[in-house]
Automatic annotation (TrEMBL):
<dbReference type="GO" id="GO:0016616">
    <property type="term" value="F:oxidoreductase activity, acting on the CH-OH group of donors, NAD or NADP as acceptor"/>
</dbReference>
<feature type="active site" description="Proton donor">
    <location>
        <position position="37"/>
    </location>
</feature>
<dbReference type="InterPro" id="IPR020471">
    <property type="entry name" value="AKR"/>
</dbReference>
<keyword id="KW-0560">Oxidoreductase</keyword>
<comment type="similarity">
    <text>Belongs to the aldo/keto reductase family.</text>
</comment>
<feature type="domain" description="NADP-dependent oxidoreductase">
    <location>
        <begin position="4"/>
        <end position="248"/>
    </location>
</feature>
<protein>
    <submittedName>
        <fullName>Aldo/keto reductase</fullName>
    </submittedName>
</protein>
<dbReference type="InterPro" id="IPR036812">
    <property type="entry name" value="NAD(P)_OxRdtase_dom_sf"/>
</dbReference>
<dbReference type="Pfam" id="PF00248">
    <property type="entry name" value="Aldo_ket_red"/>
</dbReference>
<dbReference type="InterPro" id="IPR023210">
    <property type="entry name" value="NADP_OxRdtase_dom"/>
</dbReference>
<feature type="site" description="Lowers pKa of active site Tyr">
    <location>
        <position position="62"/>
    </location>
</feature>
<dbReference type="InterPro" id="IPR018170">
    <property type="entry name" value="Aldo/ket_reductase_CS"/>
</dbReference>
<feature type="binding site">
    <location>
        <position position="95"/>
    </location>
    <ligand>
        <name>substrate</name>
    </ligand>
</feature>
<keyword id="KW-0521">NADP</keyword>
Length: 261
């Protein structure tokens, strides 16, 4: 899985087609969508028309909450594949654990079956907490490869990163740029950007890569799509990494997964 990919949350289907096309042209080879984003069709079409072989693209989609349950999940997966216009995904994720439904273990069994059939090359989870991850791993035959969680310098999730690593999962950062807003004006990030001849966004993405996170920034602006991929020609020092690490302030943007159902 490429460590740097491209996300399309909140991007309407047509625009997803345009921005995924731009991203693939810019060099991205990993694309992150979900049933609930309502843009699997445009995303799949952009991949098919890109001129890049399907096997050279790493495609992720996710199972929405109301599709949980063993048989529901099998049906939802088929529907996602059809919208994506492909016969496999590289990674299929349970989008949220939704602990009050208490269906994530039986849902996982469906993902294990899909994985066994080779229709999802890898399976994983998103927004799993330490408690839900612990239970899932205890009951799983196939351990999830990755946990995609909210993670950015204002919410750096050292506890969940450690919990993922303890179970052998990669950590993938969603909203890696903190959705752009206040984070990218942070004086520390702006200063580090000026020192390295890079933007604050590039500094944040570099921080993720050096921490070992998989990262999937989103943009619909072609110049920013390219800018966010141009992060492989500089390196943050240990001191830079510490300064960014010290920005952590419990700045969660999205909901607490324990309460999502
Ligand atoms: P993000 O942190 O990637 O921020 C995107 C926003 O930042 C853009 O809309 C734009 O306003 C700004 N931006 C992007 N590049 C910039 C640049 N170079 N300079 C200045 N501003 C810039 O936010 P996101 O879209 O929430 O997260 C990324 C991806 O993570 C999503 O598209 C989706 O694929 C995934 N995601 C998953 C979940 C989940 O529950 N699993 C939740 C949210 C997002």
């Amino acid at each position: 899985m490429p460590q740097l990919g491209f996300g399309v949350w909140q991007v309407p289907d047509d625009e997803a087609h345009r921005s995924v096309s731009t991203a693939i042209e810019a060099g991205y080879r990993s694309i992150d969508t979900a049933r609930i984003y309502d843009n699997e069709k445009g995303t799949g079409r952009a991949i098919a028309e890109s001129g890049v072989a399907r096997e050279d693209i790493f495609l992720t989609t996710k199972l929405w909450n109301d599709d949980q349950g063993h048989d529901n999940a099998l049906r939802a997966f088929d529907a996602s594949l059809e919208r994506l216009g492909t016969d496999y995904v590289d990674l299929y994720l349970i989008h949220w654990p939704t602990p009050a439904r208490d269906t994530y273990v039986e849902t996982w069994k469906a993902l294990e079956r899909i994985h066994g059939e080779g229709r999802a090359k890898a399976i994983g989870v998103s927004n799993f907490t330490a408690a839900t991850l612990e239970r899932l791993v205890g009951e799983a035959d196939v351990v999830p490869v990755i946990n995609q969680i909210e993670l950015h310098p204002y919410f750096s999730q050292s506890g969940m990163r450690a919990a993922n690593a303890a179970h052998g999962l990669l950590t993938e950062a969603w909203s890696p740029l903190g959705q752009g807003k206040g984070l990218l004006e942070d004086p520390v990030l702006v200063e580090l950007g000026a020192r390295h001849g890079k933007s604050a966004a590039q500094v944040v993405l570099r921080w993720h890569l050096q921490l070992g996170n998989v990262v999937i920034p989103k943009s619909v602006t072609p110049a920013r799509i390219r800018e966010n991929f141009d992060v492989f020609d500089f390196e943050l020092t240990a001191e830079d990494m510490d300064r960014i690490g010290s920005l952590d302030r419990d700045g969660r943007i999205g909901p607490d997964p324990a309460g999502v159902n």
